[in-house]
Q: What sequence folds into this?
């Protein structure tokens, strides 16, 4: 659902996540919500940092090694530098990036901050992941990305906010498949997702807590459930792993353990289209 106005009196997932990362775009209600999450999950800010560092490494690999020149980032969140276009265009200035989010505050920041290189292109769509047509059929998207050519679809820290709800017609797996089916061979799918696998007790508390009060509604998933999002794709080594273990460029900080981070991260390729 698209947000139509910014409500400073209710916690917002984008602003709470910005607080986790040490950003300055949250309100008092978001900080209170973030501290509420932190009481249940003490490692949440460590996880946000590890997730962000993974994203940077993955974007660099996709651009420099896999040769990707188009990125579609859904569930962008409040811009945190370096952004995807800054990372990718520093390697290949002609890279094109389309960002999307359904939060109005993200739109406001994107209009000011997300400017790409002259050679490439950067655009922002105010659209909803749960309405694929609002993104895939958008004329604005077509101005930036050519969906007949490989695209890296980035669902970074998004899907754990999408709870399966039969009554509401929300099926996260079906939604992901809709997007992947729209991509040509040689495209890539990037996912990071919170999991209870490493610390079941903590996530039992998180799931049982007042999640609306913390702005963190959604659904945590096990590794087996997350692997289903990649069905039919070719996993990039080292596969589905904690984010700090995906092609690290140095030792992880001592506080960055599997238990504190409690996330899975992976990148996979759409088969066909020549060598990876």
A:
């Amino acid at each position: 659902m698209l947000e139509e106005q910014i409500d400073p009196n209710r916690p917002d997932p984008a602003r709470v996540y910005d607080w986790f990362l040490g950003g300055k775009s949250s309100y008092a209600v978001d900080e209170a919500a973030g501290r509420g999450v932190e009481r249940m999950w003490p490692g949440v800010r460590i996880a946000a940092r590890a997730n962000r560092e993974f994203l940077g490494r993955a974007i660099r690999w996709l651009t420099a090694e896999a040769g990707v020149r188009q990125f579609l980032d859904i569930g962008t969140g409040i811009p945190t530098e370096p952004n995807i276009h800054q990372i990718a265009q520093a390697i290949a200035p002609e890279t094109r990036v389309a960002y999307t989010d359904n939060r109005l505050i993200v739109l406001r920041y994107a209009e000011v901050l997300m400017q790409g290189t002259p050679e490439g292109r950067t655009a922002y769509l105010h659209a909803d992941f749960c309405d694929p047509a609002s993104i895939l059929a958008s004329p604005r998207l077509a101005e930036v990305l050519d969906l007949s050519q490989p695209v890296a679809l980035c669902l970074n820290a998004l899907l754990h906010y999408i709870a399966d709800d039969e009554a509401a017609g929300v099926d996260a797996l079906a939604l992901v498949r809709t997007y992947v089916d729209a991509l040509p061979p040689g495209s890539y799918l990037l996912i990071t997702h919170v999991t209870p696998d490493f610390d079941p007790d903590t996530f039992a508390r998180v799931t049982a807590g007042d999640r609306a009060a913390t702005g963190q509604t959604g659904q945590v998933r096990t590794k087996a459930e997350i692997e289903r999002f990649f069905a039919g794709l070719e996993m990039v080594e080292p596969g589905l792993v904690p984010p700090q273990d995906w092609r690290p460029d140095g030792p992880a900080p001592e506080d960055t353990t599997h238990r504190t981070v409690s996330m899975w991260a992976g990148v996979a390729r759409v088969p066909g289209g020549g060598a990876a």
The CA atoms of residues 34 and 141 lie 33 Å apart. The domain at 13-269 is CATH 3.40.50.150 (Rossmann fold). The two ends are 36 Å apart (CA to CA).
